[in-house]
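Q: Hi! First time asking for a complex rather than a single chain. Here are the components, and I think there are three in total. Is that enough to go on?
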Amino acid sequence: MALLEYALIGGILYGIFFSLVGIGLNLVFGVMRMINLAHGQFIMLGGFGAWLLVHELHLNPIFGIPLAVLGGILIGYPLYYGVVPRLQRSQDPEMLSFILFFGIAQMIEAVMLFIFGADQRSLPGEALGSGNIGVFGQEFPDSWWVAAAVSILCIGGLWLYFTRTRLGFATRAIMADRDEARATGIDVDRVSAIAFMIGLSLAGIAGVFVPYMVGSVSPSIGDSLTTTSFAIIIIGSLGNPLGTVVGGLVFGVGTMLMQTYYASWSNLVPYALLLVIVLIRPSGLLGKAVRSA
Amino acid sequence: MSSEPLLRLEGVSKRFGGLTVLDRQSFSVSAGEIVGLVGPNGSGKTTTINVISGVHQADAGRILFEGREIQRLKLFRIARLGINRSFQVPKCFRAMRVRENIEVAATFAGRGAVDIDEILAGIGLADQADAIAGALTVNQQKMLDLGRALATNPRLLLIDEIGAGLNPAELGGIAELLKSLAARGIALIVVEHLLDFLNRITDRVIVLGAGRMLFEGSLKAASQDPDVVAAFIGG
Amino acid sequence: MRYPAAVLAILAAMFLVLPHVYGNQSVLFTMMTFMALAQGLNLLYGFTGYLPFGYVGFFGTGAYATSLLVTFTGMPVLVCVLGGGLAAVVVGLILGPLLRLSGAYFSIANLAASQIIYYVVANEALKHVTGGPYGVKIEQVYAPTASYATMLAVLLLATGLAAYFRRSRFGLGLRAMHQDPISAGLAGVDIVRERLIVWLASAGIAGLAGGAYAWNLSVFYPDAVFTLQISVFAIVFALFGGVGTVIGPLLGAALLYAFYAVIGVSAPQYFELLYGLLIVLLVLFLPNGLMSLLIRRNVDVL
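A: Yes, that's all I need. Here is the structure of the assembled complex.
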């Protein structure tokens, strides 16, 4: 019973964090109708940003959050205007952007491998609080609670952006119908570029906590984070960023249960979930996933 | 057998999400007949053609072609039985040459030999046979769409808004072409907004409103029917 | 290069003569492996538009099935390699429903499938069957020359299939389906069946290549035959040469792999960077690869 409680509460914390991991990918997809296959690599960059802060500047890893936002802007802005408008005019934007972001993912991974080597790097546990916090008698390290809290703040912030700001309204209009939004005078490229930068920033922020939640960060971690994110946002309804939370929780609790009871098979969870969901529910949640013929 | 119509719809319905676009439609079409399908936008004309041709599957009801149920058959099976169609927005094989577009259908439908040159001449594209389909004008692509359908030797042809954007001379040409097809025993269902054009080729029209059949009969009688008038003006 | 038979003959002659000229047979073998994989991936992506990110899953399946057959049955190795191809086809059949998915969904779901196969094969719990993370050893059948010839046969088979897809009635249906699946259906093309056949052919090629590769290595860890890098190479090579043609993927794989063999093996991360950049540039400036330069000038390429 204690084991089950541990798995459930841990799964909720883990799942809240993984909502943050997936949400940037979902935002970018919702706004741009492009799958950012380099999403996991951007998360990985956030993790290395935090690692550098801790080991080179001896700062608290929490400062990785503003650094991630800065990085999201500095990378997102030129990347958006450099490739996206051109892709959207091409014959098959969905597939070509997919392949292009794949190329970008390879480049990021290679550069990081080049600079940092293939080692797995972790962060000092005590930096985010050295104790444990217990709920219902189940104790988890402080860093897990911090990660979950930051995730809730970020997701809440995104919700406020969508519901309380003009840019957020415009963003939602574009998600609903890009052409219609353009017709009503919204500067689609500017709003999309901002959403892209927010998406990358959120990925980077998630990355700050990856060393705590996953154990370590290394240049090659990106692809599995991308696939996991994809599974999460598909469960939670693709294109609806806030639905990501549902996906995150399903993934988190599922993973924790597997780790508790069938540890050696737990890394199958995101992939199996993804396959099962795309095959069982190709319509409904996934209306856009199925070919018309 | 001779009294059996070529095509019969029995209570065919189609829903998209919560919206019923076709509501228990029933009608039949005989060989060599041209039937017009008219109604306001969103009344279910194109959906009717989509469920008959197998592009969409009906949610309820039966569709009988030569007495055989076809509502569960795949697109290519329906095509091989002899039902084909054109599209309002033409769907050619854009990267292929015009002749190849026709060849694909002639090869795969397996409904007997067809004379590709004759089809190309019939749709007015004999001179463009080696052009890339994507480079044709939209009107030419519509004709190529029709040619692709004809190359399957169809017994029932569904035509979706072929007249829009054509000048009177071109419309006259199409009217003659469709009538000559009917004279060969092909049944045609023609969705069209241009009533003059329909009047010239049809014996009978079916008027749809909000997925339901409002009227069946001559176009002239339709224009005096109160339901029809209400649907077009009030709908 | 209009005639399939000529392409096959040149390919066979090249790889039969080259070992006598150039000493490093393992480089030639790996080059053939990637040519076969690029061609196999081209069968699917070039002719149907489905990009299988998890293509390596079939390769790994073939490698493992072959090794397990060698270990547990003692059948002739060549039969075991065929068994590897068959195993990949069976996996393809099981994954057939993925073909209902469109574009990127297909690619990612396929990637997930290949990861599942990898995690199952490499799982500690299965170490008495697959060797788990400790890999497999079939050095008792190690035969570099015979496995080299087998890989050449796989390459020729893949290329023959590509030529068939490009020039046959079946291929005409594929081209139509690629451009407009609904119109192709209306033209009488059984699109579901054609797609499945191409998918299984593509899977089978990867499985056979995996089998021949396992035979040639004869000792390997699961990572060696399941690394995503294998999918990446196949995709980049095929895209670079030009998908949807017969010689494009061969040319792309030969050129880029030769480049890699000369400079890259010692510093693979430079190559990952270079390939990433190459993908980006190809998508932006030459989405149909080298062959499109010829096709644009109305050269009839196979």
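A: The mean pLDDT of chain A is 87. Let me know if you'd like any chain examined more closely.
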